[in-house]
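User: Quick sanity check before I run a bigger batch. Here is a single chain. Can you write out its predicted 3D structure?
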Amino acid sequence: MELQIGRYPHGEKNQITDVPGGKVGHVTVDDGDVHTGVTVVLPSPENPFTHKLTAASFVLNGYGKTLGLVQVDELGTIETPVALTNTLNVGKVHDALVSYMIGRCREDGIRLTSVNPVVCECNDSGLSDIAVRPVGEREVLEAIAKASDTFEEGAVGAGRGTTCYGMKGGIGSSSRVMRIDGTDYHMGILVQTNYGASADFRAATLPEGIAPCDKGSIILIAATDLPLSARQLKRVLKRASVGMARLGSYIGNGSGEIVVGFTTAPRTESGSFLEVRALKEEGMDVPFRAIGECAEEAILKSMLCAGPDRTLGGREVPCLADYLKKL
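Assistant: Done. Predicted structure follows.
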């Protein structure tokens, strides 16, 4: 899906996996009234528990059931893959990530006694019978096994049953290339979109009655290979809200807007000390702009890559691509 958003060029795949080493995997569950799934972001090929990456999170509006952010913000690192699912599957997916990490560490000869999985969610109960809770260890491990540096977007994985601005939402991704001191760095985002009032959508004029208020959730997972401290990374994550605002969101009271991010830039250990290379503060405008552009485009791609659907009550949920063709 080719779009031109902002000033910076996108990466080769225009996905979060343009940040080298990352992979994304989905499992989609379509069974009767159940239309949901799980999406897993693997930050790097290494065991994330033994090769912790600098990380941060930012909560714009905390109407959500995310797990793991307290430790991420306290220690400034991430130590598991990041999983996305629906609201009532969060606990089962958390348990599945624990099992995965126990097995991964056992392979490396490590006895795991504590781990901090990060699990995020959107509520897909409009399109899916959320009480069935079909996503568990089998689905999470399958998503990890399927993970690749190219992946499908739209109504797949954790985005199978979501809506955005009253139209079909889902999983979207985008990337930007940032050139600093003659070196190319990457910024990437993956979103799970399930928010927005239709009348507020600025990319096209939508019928107001489709989604009368801004409620639901959006999860944004950001990755970069730009050297940043955890404090700087949190500053960058705040600017993901720029992409949301450009499309019309005012961050509604009943909507959870949560951003989680990490950098794959190396951390060097020397005895009792850790050396972290970081961008000068004067250069922060570059990643600020990049993440805003990524967020805006990823949200649009989550809608443009999804087809039409129906709610459990039978109401049609149009898709943005079809709607634009009619204009």
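The radius of gyration is 19 Å.

User: Great, the batch can go ahead then.
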